[in-house]
Structure of Lysylphosphatidylglycerol synthase domain-containing protein:
Amino acid sequence: MYNLPYKTKQFFFVLIKLSIVGGAFYFIYHKIASNSVLSFSDFIDFLTKKHIFSLKNVSFLVFLSIFNWFFEILKWKNLVSFVKTIRFKNALEQSLGALTASLFTPNRIGEYGAKAIYYTINLRKRIMLINLLSNVLQMSVTTILGGLGFYFFILEYNPDVNYYKLARFLVILLMAFILIGFGMIKNTFSIKGFSLVKIKYFIADYPKNQLVLGFLFSLVRYAVFSFQFYFLLHLFEVNITYFNAMVIIASMYLIVSVVPSVFIFDVVIKGSVAVYLFSFIQVSELTVLSIITLMWLFNFVLPSVFGSYYVLNFNFPQNDDQI
């Protein structure tokens, strides 16, 4: 594209942005309209019967979603300051814009490139590493709290676990760690295109106070969206204590976090896992699927709608005129 006329470059640039936004909206529509486990009409009818659409309920749910993304944006602003200081407005634009651009990519892989493109070429590799670090911090919180939740879940409900499959999974996991260790020794193993040695040195040089703050932001985010799930259980008149709800919610997020998926179908995966886990306390499938869908709508679809504005208004950094 370097030899194309300026107006032609601009035309293709606008076309790409429109394609990203159009693709995101299409997948959202497809997921809502073609949901094989929960039809949209049944979903709306059920919410209406439960009186979920009151101004008070919707306002509080939106507030929790804003609160959730507020701490994600603060986390990104804090972590990226290691390479460049940005304002909250910039962090907001990058976080929501990247969400829209990555909504339909496998495991949100598109987020890495979407955030990096906001920066000049010399910073992009480090920005991608910071995004990886941000996801690792969130995954650490999910794993720690999810592990505790799953432990209490087994103690409380004694699920019928296939120990052969569990043992096979642990063996595969152990082999994966061995391969990772071998890769570190040989400097051949990589994550998201970065060698583990490079990642190790990058993290070692990273300011520890920023890592701690990033972990705390991840912890607060987890507390917010897990409480939002509990609040929805309360709205659907599920009689359960906060602790028992968190045991199941934490277990659910732990399990779905290790299942590779196209992000737009994440709601389906969460739904199937949640239906199984909440069946131990006799919560109906329709209730669980409705809550999962609402969580997806409030925390990903709604922010991605606002993110589409930032995608459409995106421009490359001033000192980087490459398209």
